[in-house]
Design goal:
mainly alpha; 2 domains; 14 helices; binds zinc ion
Length: about 260
């Protein structure tokens, strides 16, 4: 959850690491900002002309001063990356480390879809949605049949690739936008096609990204409605809701494209 968005996380601040970064910043100030009164006070009482990088930790000092001096172990790590830029955010990012970027990061970033739809898409891309297949793998006794089509086992590949419900909803949305995916983009290749088509900053890529996100959320929500509420909606009505949401949330550039098409 605390990883950068490009690495598949939510970019929530890791308070433990942020605290380490804050103490490291104070430690750096202790070595480099001797014009500050508090730094001169610590130097004259505890460091006494030596280097704070090498002196033994003064046991008579307060807990806070000891923790600041002990943070010198992190200083090299922070300084090596943050050369010339010792602000807190920079030190924090360096302390988080380097993570491989997800191939689907562009689907999550700069997406006009609703935050809850982006959240569902993120969980789906990680393969962490609790489909029947996943629950059964944990030993839970649940019905393995897809509640949307009642014909196949509910796996993530089935739900978001093969299920007739998802296919017909997607087809209705593409019919609205008059976008034909073409025979080269048959259904099993569609996730790959989506990744390709949503790269870049063109209005078409932005619109497709938003619609794919809302579609994913709609399929998962409808599946949950079937499982937990025994209720179902018509594909036409779900597609209409997605069209409304997209028209409302789209940026000015994207909205001008959407408004060319009548639902
Ligand atoms: Zn199905």
């Amino acid at each position: 959850m605390c990883l950068p968005k490009s690495a598949g996380g939510l970019h929530i601040t890791n308070l433990k690491t942020w605290n380490r970064a804050a103490i490291t910043k104070v430690c750096w100030d202790l070595e480099h900002k001797q014009d500050r009164l508090w730094v001169r006070w610590i130097h004259s009482y505890y460091i006494e002309g030596q280097s704070s990088a090498t002196i033994p930790i003064p046991q008579q000092a307060s807990w806070m001063v000891r923790k600041v001096i002990e943070a010198r172990g992190n200083l090299n790590q922070a300084q090596a990356f943050a050369a010339g830029n010792n602000n807190m955010r920079h030190i924090y990012i360096n302390m988080l480390g380097v993570y491989p970027k997800m191939t689907w990061k562009h689907l999550i970033c700069s997406n006009d879809a609703r935050p809850k739809a982006i959240f569902t898409l993120r969980v789906q891309l990680h393969g962490h949605l609790n489909t029947a297949e996943r629950l059964i793998s944990w030993g839970m006794m649940v019905d393995s049949i897809c509640t949307l089509c009642q014909t196949h086992h509910e796996t993530k590949e089935h739900l978001f690739v093969d299920c007739v419900f998802g296919k017909s909803l997607w087809a209705r949305l593409m019919q609205w936008l008059k976008w034909v995916t073409g025979p080269a983009h048959s259904w099993p290749q569609r996730p790959h096609w989506i990744l390709q088509q949503t790269e870049g900053k063109s209005a078409r890529a932005q619109v497709l990204k938003m619609i794919y996100t809302e579609w994913t959320h709609a399929v998962w929500t409808e599946r949950n409605q079937h499982v937990f509420e025994q209720e179902e909606k018509a594909v036409e009505s779900i597609a209409k809701e997605i069209a409304c949401v997209c028209n409302v949330r789209a940026s000015v550039k994207c909205r001008s494209i959407l408004q060319n098409y009548l639902f």
